[in-house]
Each structure stands twice: as C-alpha cells, then as structure tokens.
Amino acid sequence: MSFLVRLTFFIWDFSEVDVHIGAIARTFITGLFYDIGTLSIFLMPFLVYLLIFPKKWYGSLADRISTWFGFFLAVLIIYLSFFGEFTFWEEFQRRFNFIAVDYLIYTYEVVKNINESYPLPLLLGSLISLVAVTIFICYKRKLFHKTFTNNTSFKQRFSASLPWVSICLLFVFFITNDQAEWSKNRYNNEISKAGVYSFFAAFRNNELAFSEFYSTISEKEAFANVKSQYLPFKDEFTHPDKNEIYRTIHAIDTTGIEQKPNVIFICIESLSGKYLNSLGSDENITPVLDALANQSLFFTNLYATGTRTVRGMEAITLSIPPTPGRSIVKRKNNTGLFTIGEVFKEQGYDRNFFYGGDGYFDNMNTFFGGNGFNIIDRGRGFLLDKAITVKRTNIEDDEVTFENAWGVCDEDIYNKVLKEADMAYSSGKPFFDFVMTTSNHKPFTYPEGKIDIPSGTGRNGAVKYTDYAIGAFLKEAKTKPWFKNTVFVIMSDHCASSAGKWELDVANYHIPAFIYNVPKQQNAKINTLCSQIDVFPTLFSTLGWEYDSNLFGMDILKMGPKDERALIGNYRKLGYLKDGKILVLGDGKTVNFYNWNAMDNSLQITPMNESFKSIAISNYQVADELYHNSGLQLKSLNQ
Fold first, then answer.
1. Residues 590/573, Cβ–Cβ less than 8 Å
2. CA-based nearest residue to 559, from 593, 543, 535
3. Contacts of 214 (CB under 8 A, 6+ apart)
4. What is the pLDDT of residues 157-167, one digit of tens each?
5. What percent of the chain has pLDDT over 70?
6. C or N terminus of the chain, fewer CB within 10 Å?
C-alpha cells in the first residue's frame, strides 16, 4: 500500500520530479528502506506480545481478542494513513510533517474543514468498509491460525524476533527522516519518505536547537554582523557591548512632529503575489488590490518568512527571522515579548487582535493576549489563561452571516472591526487593530452572490472574494469620521503554496504588501528586495516616530542596494536571499549556496561566498540566541 501511495505521488507530480532512471530507482529503493523500518516499528508491540504471552494460553479467548483487536488497530491506522496522505499531499505536496502533528490538537477546525472540503460520510463509510472487508478476508483465510496453535519455544521466538528488533532499534536511534533527502529535487525526497514514519519524526522534532543542528559561528561575530546591518540607519544601541540588538530608532522628520493615526492591519490568509495583476497575473481576480497598488506604498518585491499563518504572525509582530521548528507563536515563553504592539503601546495606542474563528487555534490568543492585545474572536468555550488579563470580546451569532470551519467570512470580521473602531473613535484614543482573515483557505467557501465565481469551487474564487471583501470594507470605512486619520496596512501571512522542486522555492514566498492612506505620504511602487519583518518598522518611520526597538526589521524606504535582503524558510530549511543569490542552511549543518534565476525560479549551485555565509548564519543564529536566552523578553530589556 505504501508503494501505491508513492507511485501515485510520483505520477501526480510527474512534471516536477527527477525522472532519470537512476533517480527513479533510488526514490523507490529509499522508500522501500523506510517502509521496512516503519513496518519494524509497527511490529514491535505484537512481537513483544508473542514473546511474553504464556505458551499455555495460546489460542485462548483472551489471546484471540487481543490479537484481533491489535490487528484491527493496525489495519485502521494503515487505511487512515493511506487516505490522509492523499489529502495532505494535495494541499502541501509533502509527506506528513509538523503541520499534521499540530492538526491533531485542533480537531474541531480540522474535522470540520475535512467535512466541508470532502464527502466525509462517503470517506468514513469507505474506510469502515475497507477495514471490515480486510478483517473478514483475513478471518476466512485463518490468518492467525498458526499463531494460535503453534508450539515454538521461547528461544525460537526470540531468534525470529531479533532481526526485526535490530531494524527497529536502527531506525529509532540511528536513522533520521532527513536522511531520505538524497536529491536536489524536493519532490523525489518527499516521495522517498514513508508517511507514518515522517509523522512520528515530526512529532519528535517540532523544535530544533540551532546550535546543535545548524552551522554556526562565534556568538561575538554573529552579533557584530547583525549590528553592522543597522549602521547605515544610524540606530543607537542601548548597550553597545552586550549581545543584544535593543536600540533607539531616530525619526526621519527633524521637526519632531509625530503622527499618530489609527492603524488597521489586514493579514490576508494565503495570498500569493502571483494572483495579483499588479504583480504579473492575468486572471483579473484582484481588482481592488490592483487599484490599491496605485494609491498606496506598494511593495512589489517583498517575501514572507515562512509557509504558515503562525510564522507570518511571528514575522510581523516580532519582526524576527524564522527560527527552526515551530513558530514562536506556538512555543513556550512566548508572552511578555517585545513586539510591534509594544511600540504602539508606548505611543499611547490600544491594541486589538481580531480573528474570525476561536483564537485558541494555533495558540493565537495566548500569544496575542500574552503580549498585550485585546482579543476579539469567535469564542467556542476555550478560556484565556488566568495570567492573561486583556479584554476578550466575542463575535456573537447575530453578527455572523456566513461561517465555515475556520471562522466567519471576511465581510463579517470587517464589520466587527468597523463596529469596534466606531467605539474606539468615540473614546478619543488611537487604536492598532491586527485583523486575521480566513476566507482564502480551503474549503474556499464564502457567501453566494458576492462575486461571479461560485462558493467552494476553488482557490481563485476565494481570492476574488477576499479582494471583494477588502473593497467593501474600505468603501464603508471611508464613510466613517475616523477614516482620514487611519492608516491601512495590508499584507499576506504566506503564499498559497510553498511546494516546489528546490530546497526552498523562492517564488512561493513572494507576497503583496500595501501601506495605504498615510498622511502626507506620496504613493509609490517600491521594488526594493525586502521582508515581512520590515513592513512595520517602515510604517513607524513614515509616521515620524522615534522609538526603542528590539526588532530585526529595517525601514524599506531608507534601504540602499547593500541593505536589501529577504529571509525565507520552512521548519527545517532557512534561506537568506540577496543580490540574486540564496544561501540555504539545513538541519544537518548543511550550507548550500545558489544563484537564483527569477525568470524560471530555478536554483543553480555556485561556489561559496564566505562573507555571504557569515551574515546569513548571523541573522538566524542571533534570532535563536535571543529567543532561548530571554533576549526577546521585555523584562530583560528593561534591566
């Protein structure tokens, strides 16, 4: 069955895989190797049972019940994995990874999403039928007849078990999932793996210690390299001799007049740059954003740091390069940090986080609430931690016109934003709203009759509805007394897909970003190579703010050619993009240096540049050092 899955994936993405005879052979031989390892691990409980179960009780009722129940569980897991791998591959073009592990925690959203995306009753019926038929056939063929009637001695059983025990120990202690990654083609690597083994490997390794798994340099050199990046901006470090980046950002405006407009940030779910006509598309599904490109600061060469919403939130709020493994949003010690919210707080702002689902999902409420943001979400009964004292407001049933597995439709969340903004305006205090949308997510459902693409028919419809909802929101906002004094920042959390044949598929990190309605700011299209982490530092500069910062991001508008760079990664690979080249750090202390061809998105290996390597490592090493040594914590910065 594992061979069938592997063959299906190979055919499914035939245009992407390396189809040379040697590559095909190695892909399937490596896959067989991991299948044998997975089988050995699966067999361990039964082998142990056979070794310790008294011979005199062979064939007893207890023996038969235990054996058939164990077999039932094994068959159920095999079929579940079989179906699960196809749905997971369809969305992520990967074997099970840490995303699959995370999804086990959030069963409400995941099960409901599956139900809305696929014919779940049919799938469950098919699954139960397959299990039942398999058990029936095995029963009729008397699969365990010899097991229940055998007279083998303990010594014979022990000898027969030894090879499987040896293989199991080999895979548990010496074989890692990343050893299946023998090819430069990512698809061949993923097909070489075994799904169940990949799942448990992800379960064991959802956080990777940078110092242990990645190439490093001296701590002193790493911090010196990172600090040198801010010299052109004349930032003033609070403790120049310490291993920290805490500093004062000086205002561009020498008149000392700071603007304090309201700020509404729309974080769009999964909107790749390739969907916008203003970034090269010809599908005409983003007319609102394409018009906005000429009415705002529009960043045309900006890249997301990762491939998941929580990674985008981390990049935006903490303005930090991605760290290996899970996003900081989902890790321990993720509260009381220096975020962009702290900058807003020092300027006298209220801070609010809006989410159309329950913010318990992906630990969002703990992260935002624990960092001072009030919560406005579609609460489903999950309470905030007692240590988090911010205000939580529910999106009530009568405020919802449409809802799917992930939350209310974009129009509904925007209506709630408008409602809260009206109340905030009456109080006279500026506000910063972080708004996380959900409509551009599978099952791609939204209210009917809003656009000319039927709901639930695919990504293009969800993108067009997302664009429509932004237009409706801005149209309504323009009627409000607070509109003229409100800046709108619009940016994606990540692309719709990060899959590709390369170690890191650069084009699949390209996202749109806009800063709209900034007072006295001339509209412009900015082609500077930059990152998600730079957008809010840029906004703060355009507002003329002088502030203390622990953020890695820079002011894009002040970047020179030497300052341009982007930081991209997935949970294991970390990339540093600059001057048409990308350096990729891997968790086996690998360092690969490529020329990136933006025309066809290909990577070509090139001789190592040691200076490039040093600055790339420095950014990731310092980010990891600061997180693990409390360097992101407010209390440590205030000492």
1. no
2. 535
3. 208, 324, 574, 585, 586, 587, 589, 617, 620, 621
4. 888 899 999 99
5. 95
6. C
Note the pLDDT of residue 103: 66
Distances (CA, A) of 144 to 139, 148, 491, 574, 625: 8, 6, 59, 50, 55
Query: What tens digit of pLDDT does each residue of 547-563 get?
Result: 999 999 999 999 999 99
Name which of 508, 98, 587 is nearest 305 in CA terms: 508
Backbone phi and psi for residue 205, each to the nearest 5 degrees, phi listed first:
-125, 55
How would you write 380-442 as a 3-class SS string? CCCCCCCCCCCCEEECCHHHCCCEECCEECHHHHHHHHHHHHHHHHHHCCCEEEEEECCCCCC
Q: From residue 434, how far is each of 165, 484, 576 by CA, in Å?
A: 52, 19, 27
Distance in angstroms (rounded) separating the CA atoms of residues 364 and 111: 19
Q: How far apart are the first and last CA of the chain?
A: 59
Supply the angle between the helices 61-92 and 21-52 in degrees, to the nearest 10.
150
Residue spans of beta strands (DSSP E) within 485-555: 486-492, 510-516, 524-526, 530-531, 547-549
Report the relative pairing of strands 262-268 and 431-436 from DSSP bridges.
Answer: parallel
Mean pLDDT value across the chain:
90
**∠ CA(143), CA(148), CA(150), 5° rounding?**
105
Q: Which residue, chain included where needed, has tokens 């009381």?
A: 336
Summarize the chain as % helix, strand, coil (round to 5). 50, 15, 40
